[in-house]
Amino acid sequence: MSVDLCLLCILLIPLAATGLALIHQGLGRSRSAAHAMLATLCSLAITAIVFVLIGSAWMGFPTGLAHIVHVRHAPLDWLGAEPFFGLGLRFGVLHRPYAALVVALGLFAVGMASLIPISSGSDRWRLAAICAASVLFAGLYFPLFGHWVWGGGWLAQLTPLFGLPAFTDVGGAGVLQVVGGLAALSVAWILGPRQGKYADGIAAAIPGHNIVQVLFGCIFALMGWIGLEAAAGILFHHADFSQVVLTVINAVLAASSGCLAAVLTTQIRYRKPDASLSANGWIAGLVAGSAGCGLLSPLATIVIGLVAGALVTLLVEALELRLFIDDPGGAISVHLGAGLWGLLAFGVFGPTQGSRIALVLAQLIGIATLLGLMFPLIHMSHRLLNRLVPFRVDGDGDWQGMDIRELGAGAYPEFVVHADEFVPR
What we know:
By secondary structure, this protein is mainly α. It is built from 17 helices and 2 strands. The mean pLDDT is about 90.
């Protein structure tokens, strides 16, 4: 596959970050809008620098240098061993184009994934803490699991280790979406709910301030997702031109079916479609479809998207009303919930020349690794970081809004009335 086509796909990925930024900013309060967008820029900047200098060395790439231990007389590749500070890329464009493209993909992908927890921490997560958490995301969480799946690590080598097919995650449903969703869950737990969200033990509705921006962000996200999935398919699964075209088709089908499922589900449950949940259904379809991309049939992709769109509406309600987890942008439901479903769905619908049970089991091993290893690592790291750089703004800042408290000026001076000022404290 052409290096030029791969690079072109990689250059589309920032559109996904743009879409997610518009979505989580629009679903938050108007008095924290500027803070949310500045946090987005800071996170993108920090993750780019940290990933190139540190994270890319640990993520590595297939056939690259790696730290290996032997288990049951089989080599277990657990961490990349490329040079730090981007030294391995000094002549990468000329002599190691594959390695350079992997780093370019990771550079944009980690920035996109780092925005997911910003959504769950909206309206109360301090900018300094967001920046510190972004360092951990790009320097530890993403490269570690990314190496296991995309860098030729042990999850990609289940055949010699356990006689199972390799864990498959073509477009980053686990590497990006679930890891980002786990970080979002950790942040939401540590921060607690926004003031006024659970007055008297009852969940109060705090609607997003700009649903038009949210829906507009969905279109940007689709374009970026197509670039991400196509580039990852080319680099890590040697996708040919026909598979790249199928990736484009499947991305549109996944988003479309996810959105329509959310529209129908909210129409049935609430008697009217919900715009914000429908937007979340669109993104949930993209997330779930990322695991298989061009390896799945269009029909299977539609089914996966339909389930993801319906699932996300139920998860948002369960987290808010049953578990009392305040997630303004629905990031946990969209990225963690739909991402896990997408990984499992590949085991059910993905192509296989062997046992279907073995393929499902391989996907379950990857899911267990995410929940049993990555989440404890993420949550313990965040709790320690919270002691050094407190995550939550003080009570007055929570009520005034992050724009005034941390930036000294609002995003919409003299133009927006804060409807949630009338929500009881």
